[in-house]
Automatic annotation (TrEMBL):
Keyword annotations of the record: Cell projection, Cilium, Cytoplasm
Native source species: Rozella allomycis (strain CSF55)
Pfam families the UniProt entry points to: HYDIN_VesB_CFA65-like_Ig, Ig_Dlec1_1
Record localization: Cell projection, Cilium; Cytoplasm
Domain HYDIN/VesB/CFA65-like Ig-like span(s) in chain numbering: 228-315
Positions of the Deleted in lung and esophageal cancer protein 1 Ig-like domain: 124-204
Keyword Cytoplasm: yes
PANTHER family according to UniProt: DLEC1 DELETED IN LUNG AND ESOPHAGEAL CANCER 1, HYDROCEPHALUS-INDUCING PROTEIN HOMOLOG
Primary location class: other
GO cellular component: a single term: axoneme
Domain of life: Eukaryota
Full protein name: MSP domain-containing protein
Keyword Cytoplasm tagged: yes
């Protein structure tokens, strides 16, 4: 009996040791997972901090991070120097599909659930699809017309939400239907967008429009004082020797009414110096553009100019690399005999 008791005691002790070992293993594995998770979070935080470190360029100039689509220099100069009336008229001609930001249940707003308008396009066609005010004066009121045409085969509702900005407001036409009315197929409803600036700076807001099926936005932008550099459309190096640096001097003037702060980058094999500069109004700056081709052929690249306002301009850089026929009159050069400590010389004639 004693032997059986001893065996049972030993078995219980052994099981307790095994249970403790299993429990410790589970705790160790759990602690290891927690440690790995903490390390992963720390690494992510370090990566985020590293990504937020400013570059050398951003240390000197504060740039708008919302970079806008690049335009050719001539197109940008033409648009930015327009009068307010001409720019609003241009906005009316440049029509695009507005951005849909949210979908709503069409069944809750209308008994007509079927529609002939594609789901990726709003039920109403907006004109203009973007509004730009520029060359304005403070403490004056400016207006732009917004029209919305029903593209569906049944009557649809359109409501324009109130704007949160104190500088912009939208009101229906006095002669038109009230806001939120239903519009017959193919018919339009119009609103007046009012802009009241207090200082000559940049403003931005979005006009949110609600239909039976979706919400879409009309961006509204007001461009205040800014620097404008009169870059030419393209720089042509024509024919240049391969593996040889060719330079072109470029003079650019700030024709705007504010300092022009820019960062400039060129695609290889082109380069430009300086890469960053600030030009005061009516002042000029000199850029040195270099072309260093490594192989024979024609090159067409772009030079990008990024303003601190977020606007981006591109200039074409063209060049052709050729193998230049340079040689010598003789394939062999024989030096005259001379004594130790003295020198002997010969003339070598090269031709192009």
């Amino acid at each position: 009996m004693e032997d059986i008791g001893n065996k049972l005691t030993g078995a219980l002790a052994s099981n307790e040791v095994k249970l403790k070992t299993i429990k410790n293993d589970k705790i160790n594995r759990k602690n290891k997972k927690i440690t790995e998770a903490v390390d992963s979070i720390d690494k992510s935080l370090r990566d985020i901090k590293a990504s937020k470190k400013p570059t050398k360029a951003s240390n000197l100039i504060k740039f708008n991070t919302e970079k806008q689509p690049a335009q050719l220099s001539s197109v940008y100069l033409k648009e930015i120097t327009m009068s307010l009336e001409d720019r609003l008229a241009l906005c009316g001609k440049q029509s695009s599909i507005p951005e849909i930001v949210e979908f709503v249940d069409i069944g809750e707003n209308s008994c007509h659930k079927e529609t002939q308008v594609p789901v990726d396009q709003p039920l109403f066609h907006a004109t203009p699809s973007k509004v730009v005010f520029q060359n304005f004066d403070p403490f004056k009121k400016y207006e732009a017309m917004l029209s919305f045409r029903n593209r569906d085969k049944v009557a649809r509702r359109l409501k324009v939400e109130s704007l949160e900005s104190p500088y912009f407001s939208v009101v229906p036409l006095k002669s038109g239907p009230p806001n939120g009315s239903r519009v017959a197929p193919g018919m339009e409803i119009c609103y007046i967008l009012q802009f009241k600036p207090e200082v000559k700076r940049d403003y931005f807001c979005q006009v949110v429009c609600v239909t039976d099926r979706e919400k879409f936005v009309i961006p509204v932008e007001a461009k205040g004082s800014r620097g404008i550099l009169d870059f030419q459309n393209e720089i042509n190096f024509s024919e240049c020797p391969v593996k040889f640096v060719s330079n072109h001097t470029l003079y650019v003037r700030n024709i705007g009414n504010a300092p022009a702060r820019v960062i400039i980058e060129a695609e290889e094999p082109f380069s430009i110096s300086p890469h960053q500069t600030t030009v005061m109004p009516q002042q000029a700056v000199q850029f040195e553009v270099s072309f260093y081709p490594q192989s024979i052929g024609k090159y067409e690249k772009y030079i990008s100019i990024l303003y601190d306002t977020g606007e981006s301009v591109i200039v074409k850089a063209l060049g052709s690399a050729e193998d230049v026929a340079v040689g010598s009159e003789s394939d062999m050069l024989v030096m005259n005999n001379t004594y130790i400590g003295l020198a002997s010389s010969q003339n070598v004639r090269l031709y192009n």
